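Hello Y.,

Per our agreement to keep a running log of every chain we model this quarter, I'm adding this entry. I've kept the format consistent with earlier entries: sequence first, then predicted structure.
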Amino acid sequence: LPILQPEVILVLGRTAWRMFAHGERTDRPIFHARYVNSEGRRRRYLEERHVWALDYGNGMAWMTWVYHPSWNVDCWEDRAAALRHLLECPHDRPMA
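Predicted structure for the entry above:
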């Protein structure tokens, strides 16, 4: 995260993510967690995750979610890919 130089990092679990009002869903491409269901699990976990935008200070924050590491669902490659996906979002886009 040093390269991002974030002011704030907020981590929400999926349940909290779904319950709270947290900005607006954007037209950004959905983040697709490629490895979440790759180990032949019986239960299917969500692979597609929307990107949201939230007003923050004089700018905005891009957000998506990953499963908590204790669930052993998302691998580090998916968590890293989620950060890269958010980095590709434009940093100067005004809220719609």
